[in-house]
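User: Hello! I'm new to structural biology and keep hearing that structure can be predicted from sequence alone. Could you demonstrate with IclR family transcriptional regulator? Please show me the input and the output so I can see what each looks like.

Assistant: Of course. The first part below is the input, the amino acid sequence of IclR family transcriptional regulator. The second part is the output, the predicted structure written as tokens.
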Amino acid sequence: MSEAKGVEAVERALSILDCFEPDTTELSLAEIARHTGLYKSTILRLAVSLERFGYLVRGEGSRFRVGPTAWRLGANYRQSFDLAAVIRPQLKQLSEATNETASFYVKEGRHRVCLFRHEPPRAIRHTIQEGVSLPLVQGASGKILQIFAKIQQDYGTEEDARVRSCGIAISMGERDVEVAAIATPILSTSGGLVGALAVSGLITRFGPDRQEEMTILLKDYRKALEKMIIC
């Protein structure tokens, strides 16, 4: 099925709003142009409409900031936010993309709990039940939950520092000698740990090339989820 076409002008306007991050409260016209690749004249025309509907506010020196309408929509999103409704579709897509089991774990004391998961239709797969509690000290998702739950950025071993730096942990037969897993953290907009996103399957299917492929996919899905999760 072909991808549905959008409205170019709307997508350009949304690309302007997409420039603003939690640590970027104001942007100049030149900065927006650099981020979006749009001509300054195009940005100014779109900004008129965005200002009119309260999505942008133009301050002194032609610097722009997010307007009250965006805040109102964000407040509505927070009130209606359902973690399962956000996580489950992404797990399904990740599982289909890798043909492996995709799971989301949270930290509970010294254990990790599989909150959500989606398994592929293939006959030989890693089966994990939602709600199962596993040790934190074993598995890729356990490493992620331990390391990213630590407050001190420099706390831990050299391996901890490497995992924190690259945002990826890999385990090969740690909890089950036949199972491998790759995991990445999911962080909230404030930087707090929400959980760990993981792909797991038969260890023989997790060679170097597949590890690289799944690492790229995990990072893509992490980026998408962190834009949607508000907590």
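User: So the tokens describe the shape?

Assistant: Right, they're a compact way of writing down the 3D structure. Reading them back into a model, for example: The chain is about 45% helix and 25% strand.
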